[in-house]
Structures are given as C-alpha cells and as structure tokens.
Amino acid sequence: MGTAVTGSGKTLAFLIPVIEHLYLNKWSRTDGVCAIVISPTRELAYQIFETLKRIGRYHDFSAGLIIGGKNLKFERSRMDQCNILICTPGRLLQHMDENPLFNATTIEMLVLDEADRCLDMGFEETINAIVEHFPTDRQTLLFSATQTNSVKDIARLNLLDPIFIGEKSKSEYIIPELLQQNYLVMELEDKITMLWSFIKNHLKQKIIVFFTSCKQVKYVFEIFCKLRPGTSLLALYGTLHQDRRIAIYNDFTRKSNVVLFATDIASRGLDFPTVNWVVQMDCPEDAVQYIHRAGRTARNKARGESLLVLTPSEEQGMIKELEDKNIHIKKIHIDPKKLFSPRLKIEAALAQNTELKASAQRAFVSYIKSIFLMKNKQIFNVFKLNLENYAKSLGLIVTPRVRFLERLLKKKGSETEIVNESNDFVHEDSDNDDDFLKVKRVDHDLGNNLDDITLELPKKNKILTKAAAAKKAIRKKIAPNEKMNFDDDGNVIIDNIKQLHSEIPEEYENKDGGINIEIAKKVISQEDKYDKERFRQLVKQRHKLQKEKLKKHTDENLQSNSAESESEDDVDLSWLPDPDKIYDSNGKADETEMSLSDDNDSEEPSSKKVKFTSKLTLNDAESIAAHLLANTV
C-alpha cells in the first residue's frame, strides 16, 4: 500500500514492477492476462495506458485499454491476447460476466490506482464482485495520495500482512511543498462575476476550474463562450461522449493558455503539465476531495497556486476540517475595482437563446440538489443560501422551482403549528390583550431540524392493469358499475351483445368460487346459438337493405331512360309548309293567312300576313300539291 504526494510519480511506481514481473517470468501473449490495473475514471485509465506504451515500447508484452464508451465487441475479441489490462471497474465487471474469452485464473497482480476512491461507496459492489473472480494467491498494490487504512477495506481485498510504504505522517506531506493555497469568501451570487474577472486577468495562464455538477460545467462553458473572454475554453464532464472527452484531455494537455471547466472526474490522478491555477468554485465535499483537486497543479516539484471560493456559511466548517488534516490555507481578499460583472450580457444572451436559458435552469437546480445531498450539514446548508440572487447571477429573471425543497418545506410546515387558534380572535372588551398579540413563532429552529432530514426520492407509481383493478374490486367486494342507455320514451335499450339469453350463463355469472372450465364451455356453447341466430338476422337485414337500394337504383334508371325516349320522339316539324296556305309553282303563297281569334273571325290586316320564305324542292312541291288536290276532291 503506497502513499505519496500528488504529482510524485505513483503511476511509474506500479507500472515498472508490473513490467518487471512479466519480464522475469517470461510472460508471452499466449499465456493470458497477468496484471490488471483498475482506475476510477476513464481519463486516468487512458493516461496510465499512454504511460505504459511509452515505457514498455521495447517489450513484447501486449496491453489493452478497457473503458466504457469504447467498442465492446472489439474489446471482447482481443481480451484473451492481452497480458496487461488497464480498465475501469464497470467495464471490467461487464467482461467478466459476459465475455467467455476472459479468464481471470491466470492473474498474478492486481493494482488499484486511487485506491481510496475505488474502495468507497460508489464502487463498493463492483469491486466486491470483481475480487470474487480473482485467485487469492496474487499480489495486490494500492496507490493513492490519500490512502485508506480501514481494516474493512483491507479484508475485502484478501490482503495478508499488508506493507505500508510512504510518509510516516498522515497529513504533513500530502500537499506539495511548492503549492500556494489561498481561499476567499464571497456571496453565492458574486461567484460568476469573480470567475469572469479572474479569467480576464489571467489570459496567458493555464487554469482548471472545478464545479460540483456536470450541468454547472456545461452552462458556464456555454455562456462564457458566448461572452468571449479572449482565451481558449474547454469543458470536461461525465456526460460527454468518451471520444470527445479524450480529445478534450489531449487538447488541454497540449495547450499552454487555456481554461478547463471540469467536474471531479478531472480531480483524480490526471497529470496535466504546467497548470498555473486550480480554482475550486464550489466547496469540496471534504478535505480529501480538496487535496485531489489542488493536486492538479504544483506537480513534480513545480510551482502552482490553488484558490478555494467559499460562501460565508461554508467558511467556518471547511477551514476547521482542513486544519484538522494539517492543511493550512491563507485567506485573501479581492480588489473590487478589478471585478467586471457580465450579468447584463448574460441576461441578453439568455433572452435570445431558449436552450441556453434551459441550461441555466438545470445548472441552478443541480447545484441546489448537490448542496442538499452533502453529508456534512455544518458546512452545507441550502437554507442559508440566497437562491433568488443566485438565479439572477446566472441570468435568470425568474427563480426556477426546486420541487424537492418545496415538498420538504411543505412537509415540515404541516408538522409545525402555524398559528394558535386562540390568536385568531381578539375580544373587544379585553383590557389586557398583550397575550393576544403574541403570535407563536412558526419557523423556530427550522434550519436545525431540516439538517437531519434526508431527501426522499419520489416513489414510482406502479402501473395498474385492468386485471389488477378487477381483482382489487373483487377483494373489496365492490359491485362494478353498469352502463344503461335509454331511448326517447325512457325505456331501457337492451344490448344483445352483452345480454345473456340462457339460464346457464346467468347462474354461472352469479355463482362464486372462481372459474370452472367445464361450465364455461357449456356457457359458451349455449350463447353461441343465440349469437348465430342474431348473426343470421343481421345478414338478412343487410340483404334486405341491399335489395331495396338496388330496386331504387333500377327505378331511377328506367325513369331516366323513358325521359330520354320521349325527348327523341319530339321531331322538329317547323320546316314543313302550312297546309292551310296555297302555294304557286314557285313555292309562294297566294292566299292570305287567316287566323281565328277567340272573340271574332275578323280578317287580319295585310301588314300582319306571314309569308313562307323557305325554298321548296320540286318533289316537296309535287307532294304538297297532290295532298291539296286530294283534300279538295
């Protein structure tokens, strides 16, 4: 079990013995896996793998990087050919459970980097399951800047006679000697202004800024990119895709003037060269987390500075905990003249971008939740924070709702007496009414009582199926509702589909004792007779309607055809000559046309005589003449 200050070369301290063990035992690719190195984070595993490639390039050993976010099938097909595995706990356990090519019986060395983090509550079940697959006859190496000495943890790993290597003092040399530690105290709503001003005054330096949650990192990175401080900005947090995380890690390692916003995934073991500043915008959970965050600078006997930003409610408890670990930190003050508030620009950016506004709301809620879930309530008290001003500092006009706090306050308010009932009424004739004006304090010791309350996760409502609802109603002996339809006269409309017609089904339905298959078959056979008869009636009715429609259609066709025939018989005979007139050989009429009126038979004037001017053929004229002669005779 090795303990050393951050940045002192612990990675080489376990990689060199691993390579030496494989070299002395003449381990080859066909011999299987000999050593496994477990890291709590993917970035740290990637860094260890890159270091192993540099120092083991002259050996024939094979090594593999097994982390989440990579191709599982590619890893599965090559695990049996690797001698050294660099992995994270979750992906290693997945291969142990699912990959038939993985054989753990050949393992001779197990290395836990950042062992205290690997053995804590976050990885407890995973590490326990992994250790069960390993043979007991092996060498186990534990390395960390804050090593665990718990007997329980040692027993979990089956360690016999462990040897502790490192400094004798538990905390004297944990922090690098050349690391300058400072802290400042300011209100929560001034943190964004302080961070913006700090970056503007350190544009030519390499800075890591730590936040508590991923959503905070994402929002601050997005809004600062909109504001353009004049230096490169990067963000590293857990919800990013693994390839993107590795690219950001390499980019930050390569650049010299850059700011990295990160969560605690970057606080463990990562070796970033020449980091000038580490700024902890949110108070760390404990002194161990502070040590690992601050240890990203002043590595390998280089100089570095660490700045811890605390709120007034966090100062006393956090400084006391650091002093208990023999960590001495200096308080500094910021010159107000060098502060530049970007609040107006942030509000304008949020007004134009709804997605950015939603990101700010998520960052607000995630910070409140992280503070509420902290274990040390003497340091972290969410009820001492000015949430309204903090929301405004993020650019939000309206403070987002924090539902779990609302439920908690509502529950607490229902348990305390708000106003004494006797104070609701004051008598007019009372001389001594001092007691009536004294209202009982409703929020007395509210903060102290809420500290011990744990957050209750919302219970998932179980989906209630129709079958379960029916069983529940039967158990409670609840009669099911019946739906009845009435006609205009008030008579009940009987639904033949749902109506039982025979006696056997009615008896079976009213009978208790569960389902009887034989009787149910008889019921079905009886009801089928009525169903078939009803079906035949429906078919007959449908056929009758079809016949009526067909007959109606046929009658309409006959009427239309008769109308067309009558119209064809009406021939236009207006061109024929008038039989009452006499025509000459040229086809001209000689006699005057006589017309009879209803009153008298007077002769019409000559002006009203109508002449037939149409020309007749010779044959027509002869036929007309013959007709006239026949009439005269």
From TrEMBL:
Composition bias, Acidic residues: 592-604
Reactions this protein catalyses: ATP + H2O = ADP + phosphate + H(+)
InterPro entries membership: DEAD/DEAH_box_helicase_dom (IPR011545), Helicase_ATP-bd (IPR014001), Helicase_C-like (IPR001650), P-loop_NTPase (IPR027417), RNA-helicase_DEAD-box_CS (IPR000629), SPB4-like_CTE (IPR025313)
Biased composition (Basic residues): 543-552
Keyword annotations of the record: ATP-binding, Helicase, Hydrolase, Nucleotide-binding, RNA-binding
Highest taxon of the lineage: Eukaryota
Pfam families, A to Z: CTE_SPB4, DEAD, Helicase_C
Biased amino acid composition, Basic and acidic residues: 578-591
Domain Helicase C-terminal: 191-340
Region feature (Disordered): 543-610
Gene Ontology terms, MF aspect: ATP binding; ATP hydrolysis activity; RNA binding; RNA helicase activity
Helicase ATP-binding domain location: 1-165
Entry comment, domain topic: The Q motif is unique to and characteristic of the DEAD box family of RNA helicases and controls ATP binding and hydrolysis.
Similarity-based family: Belongs to the DEAD box helicase family. DDX10/DBP4 subfamily.
Record function comment: RNA helicase.
PANTHER family: RNA HELICASE
Protein name, entry field: ATP-dependent RNA helicase
Source taxonomy: Eukaryota, Metazoa, Ecdysozoa, Arthropoda, Hexapoda
Gene: Ddx10_0
